[in-house]
Write a structure and sequence with these properties.
5 helices, 5-stranded mixed β-barrel, 239 residues, single chain, OB fold (Dihydrolipoamide Acetyltransferase, E2P)
Length: 239
């Protein structure tokens, strides 16, 4: 059966002598694995589109054995990301998070939209990629049902004032009276950054200004949290 999907290539893997297996996050079908036959051959017309970051309309044949790629109508290849090693690393981290969190053949419409917005911002905006990635991780945590309460202590429900702590395992902000063995001190500057990011859309991030140190600390906290929550190890960036 022929089918068409709009998707973003998350990763590729060599398969046999001339084929590739492509992992694509699609708007319609979620994350799927697609066989691209003969794309390693120099004469292949689809070779250029079987690369990470490619955003396109993919034409597929679906059978009991899975999906086979038959055509591609490219929308964006995010070539700008490959010209800057820092941008590339942070953008690749976005793909890595999506691949490790999303299960195959389940719809992830919100994550697809966020992934696309995130890559567009990293590629074309003047915003710091650490800021964009932090916003992306916050959104992913929320979509997966682990919303971080930034108004009240997650344990006793009192307003968050004074010394604050962050439970990495549970992804919760706690007051000093409720801190536990899994908690680390949450600096006020990082707490403020989290609150600002949680209420800011991607297209407004260019107006947000944090110091490089706060950006690093905020991203490090969120990266640790997503690692704890989903038992994953992000390999594309070092913090």
């Amino acid at each position: 059966m022929d089918t068409a999907v709009k998707g973003i290539v998350l990763k590729t893997k060599d398969y046999k002598d001339s084929d590739k297996l492509i992992t694509i996050l699609t708007l319609e079908k979620g994350k799927i694995l697609v066989k691209a036959r003969g794309v390693k051959k120099p004469s292949s017309k689809l070779k250029a589109f079987c690369q990470s970051f490619c955003f396109a309309d993919f034409e597929l044949v679906e059978s009991k054995a899975g999906y086979v790629l038959t055509g591609v109508n490219e929308i964006e290849n995010f070539y700008n990301l490959t010209l800057d090693i820092d941008k590339f690393s942070y953008a690749f981290c976005v793909l890595e998070i999506v691949d490790k969190i999303c299960a195959e053949n389940q719809e992830y419409v919100n994550i697809f939209i966020d992934c696309l917005k995130c890559l567009q911002q990293m590629s074309y905006s003047s915003s710091d990629c650490r800021l964009i990635l932090s916003k992306f991780i916050l959104n992913i945590i929320n979509y997966e049902g682990f919303n971080i309460n930034l108004n009240k202590c997650s344990n006793c429900k009192t307003p968050l004032v004074g010394d604050l702590y962050f439970d990495l395992n549970r992804g919760e902000v706690l007051c000093s009276a409720c801190k536990n063995f899994d908690s680390i001190e949450l600096e006020k500057s990082v707490f403020s950054a989290l609150k600002i990011l949680s209420g800011c859309d991607y297209d407004k991030l260019s107006t947000v200004k944090f110091s490089s140190l706060i950006l690093d600390k905020t991203l490090k906290l969120l990266t640790k949290n997503i690692n704890f929550k989903f038992d994953i190890k992000l390999n594309s960036i070092e913090l």
